[in-house]
Amino acid sequence: MLIDAWFIRRSLMLPLIAQGVRIIGQIRRGTALYLPPEAAPKRRGPKCKYGPRIDAAMLEALPATVMELPLYGKVRTVRLRSVIAVARFLRGLPARAVWCERLQPDHIGSRARLILATETSLLC
């Protein structure tokens, strides 16, 4: 299901995910995303849901894929960065986060858009 950014909310997404619906939508760039936690040795108490937070430095370190796509009637250059992340608003469910930015002819990127997909096996 493709959802508009206005409707990407926990109250809508969690019941749909429980029914097996796969969701793709744009979310706010400032949304708290974390790497999945590393396997910790057995200890008492609840398991960790979240690993380190994905910040700007970690985002720049992610491998980038540059491709040309037909957008708005022209062929445009797009840079994609993707990672499996854990979204805080989804209460620890893993999702694929993709940062998309359109590159100008001088290779300066536009403001990145953040796309979230609950299907983690998608590749970009």
Structure description:
The protein has 124 residues and is mainly beta. It is 12% helix and 36% strand. The protein has helices at residues 10-18, 56-61, and strands at 2-3, 24-27, 33-34, 64-71, 74-87, 94-103, 113-117. Strands 1, 2, 3, 4, 5, 6 and 7 form a seven-stranded mixed beta sheet that branches. α1 links the parallel β1 and β2. The model has no long low-confidence stretch (mean pLDDT 86).
What's this entry about, in short?
This protein is mostly beta strands and 124 residues long. The protein contains two helices and seven strands, in the order E-H-E-E-H-E-E-E-E. It has helices spanning 10-18, 56-61, and strands spanning 2-3, 24-27, 33-34, 64-71, 74-87, 94-103, 113-117.
Features:
12% helix, 124 residues, mainly beta, 7-stranded mixed beta sheet, 36% strand
Helix content percent band: 10-25%
Our Rg estimate from Cα atoms comes to 16 Å
The CA-CA distance between the termini, in Å, is 18 Å
Judged by helices, strands and strand pairing, the structural class is mainly beta
Low-pLDDT parts are none
Secondary structure tally: strands: 7
Shape assignment: globular
- Proportion of residues in extended strands: 35-45%
Secondary structure tally, helices: 2
Major sheet characteristics: 7 strands, mixed
**Element order, helices and strands?**
EHEEHEEEE
Q: What is the mean predicted local confidence, pLDDT?
A: 86
